[in-house]
Specification:
By secondary structure, the protein is mainly alpha-helical. It has helices spanning 2-27, 34-44, 67-70, 74-84, 90-102, 116-151, 156-170, 173-184, 208-246, 249-256, 261-279, 281-291, 293-299, 305-315, 318-346, 352-356. It folds into two domains: 18-92, no CATH class; 116-356, MetI-like fold (Orthogonal Bundle), CATH 1.10.3720. Its main location: membrane.
Length: 357
C-alpha cells in the first residue's frame, strides 16, 4: 500500500502541471487582460492620470496603436507591462510561475497588493466551514436514511421519502437559499437566523461557548442550502447500493444460518454496500467545497474562496486565478488519495498494488 500511495503522490506533479499548462494557454486567448482592465478604469477617470510616466501632462494623440487609441502615453503602457511581467514572452512567464510555485511562492494580487497565499488563508475558513459541515451532514443523514429506504423498499415510507428527495434535488441551490432567507432570516416571516456573515460584530467580546454558538447560528442556513442536492444524491446512492447487495447469495446464506437481520445488515452488507458511497466522497466534498460555494457565499454575503475566484476572474487577476487553481487542484488530488485509503479501511480485502500489477 505504501508503494501505491507513493505513486499516487508522484502522479500529482504531472497532473497539476497539465492543469496549469491548459489553463495558462487558454488565458492567453481571453480578451481583456489586467492591463486592459486598468486602462478602462483610467479612461473613466479623465485627466487624473495625465502626466503619469513622464508624460509631462500631455497625452498621446489618437492614431497611434494601443496607447494612441486610448489617449495614453506609450511609456505608461510599457511600465504597466513591465510591472505585471507582460514584457516577457508567454513561455518565460509560465516557466517563472512554475519555478515560483515550486517554492510555494504564488505571487501577489495585481489589484489588492496582498500575497495570494494570504488571500487564500483569509478566505479559507468560510469555504472549509461550508464544505466540511455540508459533506458531514449529508453523509450523517443520507446513509441511515438510504439504509432505511432499502430495508423498507416498496413501502409507504420509501414512497413518500423518495418523493421528498426528488423535490429537494429538483430545487436549485440558489433558489432554496433565497427561500431560507425569506422564511428564517428576516424576510416576510421569521427572523431566527442572521442575514449575512460568518460571525457577529461582537465576536471578540463573546466567551468561548458564545463564539461556538454564534458560529453555528451564522452557518446554519448556508450549510442547509449547500447540502440539499448532495443529500438527495447520497440517499438514493446508498439505497440502491444496499438493494444490490441484499439480493446477493452471501446474504441469503447468512440469513439461512439464522443470523438476525441487524447482524446481516451491518455485519455483512454494510461493508460491501458502503464502498460505492465512499467512492463518491471526493466528488461530494469537492462539489460542495468549490462548485456550490460561489452562489451560496454570494447570497449569504460570505467572503470565501468562491467569491475570491470569481472576482479574480472578472478582474483578470492572474496570480489569484492561477494560485487558487493550483491549490484547488492539489486539494482535489489529495482528497482522491484519501478516498482510496478509506476503501482499504472499510474493506481490507482491497489491495490496489495487486490490482495495478
Amino acid at each position: 500500500m505504501g508503494a501505491y500511495i507513493l505513486r499516487r503522490l508522484l502522479l500529482i506533479i504531472p497532473t497539476l502541471l497539465g492543469i496549469m499548462i491548459i489553463n495558462f494557454t487558454l488565458v492567453q486567448f481571453v480578451p481583456g487582460g489586467p492591463i486592459e482592465q486598468i486602462l478602462a478604469q483610467i479612461e473613466g477617470e479623465g485627466d487624473v492620470f495625465a502626466g503619469f510616466a513622464g508624460g509631462g501632462g500631455e497625452v498621446a494623440s489618437g492614431g497611434e496603436e494601443g496607447a494612441g487609441r486610448r489617449g495614453l502615453p506609450p511609456e505608461f503602457i510599457a511600465e504597466l507591462e513591465q510591472e505585471f511581467g507582460f514584457d516577457k514572452p508567454p513561455l518565460e512567464r509560465f516557466l517563472n510561475m512554475l519555478w515560483n510555485y515550486m517554492r510555494l511562492d504564488f505571487g501577489e494580487s495585481y489589484f489588492r497588493s496582498v500575497s495570494v497565499i494570504d488571500l487564500v488563508l483569509e478566505k479559507m475558513p468560510v469555504s472549509i466551514s461550508l464544505g466540511l459541515w455540508s459533506t458531514l451532514i449529508a453523509y450523517l443523514v443520507s446513509i441511515p436514511l438510504g439504509i432505511r429506504k432499502a430495508v423498507k423498499d416498496g413501502t409507504s415510507f420509501d414512497t413518500w421519502t423518495s418523493g421528498a428527495i426528488i423535490v429537494a434535488y429538483a430545487i436549485p441551490g440558489f433558489l432554496f437559499a433565497i427561500l431560507l432567507l425569506v422564511l428564517f432570516a428576516g424576510g416576510s416571516y421569521y427572523q431566527i437566523f442572521p442575514l449575512r456573515g460568518l460571525t457577529s460584530d461582537n465576536w471578540d467580546q463573546l466567551s468561548w461557548g458564545g463564539k461556538i454558538l454564534d458560529y453555528f447560528w451564522h452557518i446554519t442556513l448556508p450549510v442547509v442550502a449547500s447540502t440539499i442536492s448532495a443529500f438527495a444524491t447520497l440517499t438514493l446512492l446508498t439505497k440502491n447500493s444496499f438493494l444490490d447487495e441484499i439480493k446477493k447469495q452471501y446474504v441469503i446464506t447468512a440469513r439461512a444460518k439464522g443470523l438476525d437481520e441487524s447482524r446481516v445488515l451491518y455485519g455483512h452488507i454494510f461493508r460491501n454496500a458502503m464502498l460505492i458511497v465512499i467512492a463518491g466522497f471526493p466528488a461530494v466534498f469537492i462539489g460542495v467545497f468549490f462548485s456550490g460555494s460561489l452562489i451560496i457565499e454570494t447570497i449569504f454575503s460570505l467572503d470565501g474562496l468562491g467569491r475570491l475566484g470569481f472576482e479574480a476572474a472578472v478582474a483578470r487577476d492572474y496570480p489569484v486565478i492561477f494560485g487558487t487553481l493550483f491549490i484547488f487542484g492539489l486539494i482535489g488530488l489529495v482528497v482522491g488519495i484519501l478516498s482510496d485509503l478509506m476503501y482499504v479501511l472499510v474493506d481490507p480485502r482491497i489491495d490496489f498494488e495487486k490490482r495495478e500489477g
